[in-house]
Design a protein that fits this description.
The chain is α+β, with helices and mostly antiparallel strands. Helix content is about 25%, strand content about 20%. The chain has two helices and four strands. The chain has helices at about 20-30, 60-70, and strands at about 15-20, 35-40, 50-55, 75. Strands 2-3-1-4 form a four-stranded antiparallel β-sheet, with no helix packed on it. The longest helix has 11 residues, at about 60-70. It is globular, with a radius of gyration of 12 Å.
């Protein structure tokens, strides 16, 4: 599944990350074959300056644990 395909899936949770870290994280998530999308700040996603969101669909708990380890904690529920 590619980043583009996530647009058709239900967005479940996200992590706020610094724009400067996105290249490394994108490579790591792609290598692990984890579906994700990158979103800019918006009315729905309130992010700090210099941040973007890595957005994920519902995932198996084992996959979520890989993401949690990579990003150092639990994600936030994606706003409805």
């Amino acid at each position: 599944m590619t980043t583009k395909e996530l647009g058709t899936l239900e967005k479940s949770f996200y992590y706020s990350v610094l724009w400067s870290e996105i290249s490394y994280l994108k490579e790591a998530l792609t290598a692990m074959e984890i579906p994700f999308a990158i979103e800019q700040p918006s009315d729905r996603l309130h992010l700090d300056d210099g941040e973007v969101a890595l957005v994920f669909p519902d995932l198996h708990v084992r996959v979520y644990n890989h993401i949690r380890e990579l990003l150092g904690g639990h994600g936030q529920r994606y706003p409805q």
